[in-house]
From TrEMBL:
Keyword Nucleotide-binding: yes
Annotated source species: Allohahella marinimesophila
Protein name (database record): Phosphonate ABC transporter ATP-binding protein
Source taxon at top rank: Bacteria
Residue stretches in coiled coil: none
Pfam families membership: ABC_tran (PF00005)
Protein encoded by which gene: phnC_2
C-alpha cells in the first residue's frame, strides 16, 4: 500500500516567478526507501517540504496512508507530524547539552519547553526510550557527552535518534550527509537504510550523490527542469563513473 501519494503537485514561491515544479506525481510504498535527486536548485528540498506540508503546495494533493494532507486541519496536521522524523543538513542540536538530553529535548518538540532545572528531568520510561534510540544509532557509549564534543557523523546520529523518539512511520532526510566526509556519509546512509529495512520505516531522502541514491534507495525520483524526469527502481539504474 502507498505510505505517501503525491498527485499533480505544483509549487512556486512567488507569483512573478515560474513554478519551482509542476505536475509532480509519485507514490511511495510502506517501508520503501526513496531518493530524490537532481541538480542544485532543482527544487528537491521544496518538494520534500511540500510532501509533509512544511510548505503548502499551490496545487495538487498529498496523501499519507490515504489521509489527505493538503486539506487537513491544523490539529490533524500536528498529529500527523508527530509520526514523522525529520533529519536535516544541519542537525539543529544544542551543543552544550549531552546527546541524551538532545534526544529527550526533541521529544518535547511542539509542547511548551520546560524551564530551569525541570528541563533536566524526564520520566524514567522516557529516558530508557531515549537510551534505546541512542543504542539503535550506535551511540550508547557517548550518551552523556556534550554534542559539541561529538564528530559530525555522531551528531547526525543524535539527530536520527531524536527523530526515532517519535516512533516515526516516515523518516524525511534533506541531504543528511552534506557536512560529512565520505566514510561517515556511507555509514550514515547505511544506518538510515537499515532503520528503514528493519523497522519498516518509510524513508524519503534528498541527495546530490547519485551513488547514495543507487546504493541506499529502493527507488529514485529525479527532479529537473521543474518536472519529475525519473521514477525508477534503483536496481534498474546503472551508475557510470
Ligand atoms: P534544491 O533542494 O534542489 O537545491 P530548493 O528546493 O532548495 O532546491 O530550491 C529550489 C529553488 O527555489 C531555488 O532556486 C531556490 O533559490 C528557490 N527557493 C527555495 N526556497 C525559497 C523561498 N523560501 N523563497 C523563494 N525562493 C526559494
Ligand atoms: P536547503 O539546502 O535545505 O534547501 P537552504 O540553505 O537552501 O536549505 O535554504 C535555507 C532556507 O532558506 C530554507 O528555509 C529555504 O526555503 C530558504 N530559501 C532558500 N532559497 C531562498 C530564496 N531564494 N529566497 C528566500 N528563501 C530561500
Amino acid at each position: 500500500s502507498a505510505a505517501v501519494k503525491v498527485e499533480a503537485l505544483c509549487k512556486r514561491y512567488d507569483t512573478n516567478t515560474p513554478n519551482i515544479f509542476s505536475d509532480v506525481s509519485f507514490s511511495i510504498g510502506t517501508g520503501e526507501s526513496v531518493a530524490i535527486i537532481g541538480p542544485n536548485g532543482a527544487g528537491k528540498s521544496t518538494l520534500l517540504k511540500c510532501c509533509v506540508r512544511l510548505l503548502d503546495p499551490d496545487s495538487g494533493s498529498v496523501f499519507f496512508n490515504d489521509q489527505c494532507l493538503t486539506t487537513m486541519t491544523a490539529r490533524d496536521l500536528r498529529r500527523f507530524r508527530s509520526r514523522i522524523g525529520f533529519v536535516f543538513q544541519k542537525h539543529q542540536l544544542i551543543s552544550g547539552l549531552s546527546a541524551l538530553s538532545n534526544v529527550l529535548h526533541g521529544s518535547l518538540a511542539g509542547r511548551p519547553g520546560p524551564r530551569g532545572w525541570t528541563r533536566h528531568l524526564a520520566g524514567r520510561q522516557t529516558c530508557e526510550q531515549a537510551m534505546h534510540c541512542l543504542e539503535l544509532v550506535g551511540l550508547s557509549e557517548v550518551a552523556q557527552r556534550p554534542v559539541g564534543r561529538l564528530s559530525g557523523g555522531q551528531s547526525q546520529r543524535v539527530a536520527i535518534a531524536r527523530a526515532l523518539m517519535q516512533s516515526p512511520a516516515l523518516l524525511i532526510a534533506d541531504e543528511p550527509t552534506a557536512s560529512l566526509d565520505p566514510q561517515a556519509s556511507e555509514a550514515l546512509m547505511g544506518l538510515l537504510r537499515d532503520l528503514s529495512t528493519k523497522s519498516g520505516i518509510t524513508l524519503l531522502f534528498v541527495s546530490h550523490e547519485l551513488r547514495h541514491a543507487t546504493d541506499y534507495a529502493d527507488r529514485v525520483l529525479g527532479l529537473s527542469g521543474g518536472t519529475l524526469q525519473l521514477d525508477r527502481a534503483s536496481s534498474s539504474l546503472c551508475l557510470n563513473e
